[in-house]
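ARCHIVE CARD
Drawer: 12
Card no.: 0347
Subject: one protein chain, sequence and derived structure
Cross-reference: see card 0346
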Amino acid sequence: MLLDPENTLFVRGVTPVLLLADAPVQDALPLLTAPDGAVPQCEGWSIVPRLTLCVVDGPGEHGVVVPALAAPVLGGADGGAASGDMAAWCMDVEQAGGAVVLSLDQLPEVLDWSALLSAGTARGGFMPALT
């Protein structure tokens, strides 16, 4: 399934994050509970980060493709969201060995990690990167 890049947010960091909104895989992902900030591995799922496309692949028929080149990336050199930082996000994923993928009903206006990880509304977890 193809997900509109407007329904995504790639966040750079030591542990990079991909936020998905209204994703067709949301119900297939496990409910995330990480109140202490330790995000569990999302068993059976993986991520393939590429400059033009990012694939989140799950068990069976579950998966989503994001046209990554057009998607916003937060945490770049200017601190804002821009689509030109996708190569840097992909390098972050390579260095971390994967990314945290969170699926939500809608993207938050403000990133409050403690709320996202403990509210019981996000689904997902850490997904290893396939090379």
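Annotation on reverse: The mean pLDDT is 89. Helices lie at 86-96, 113-118.
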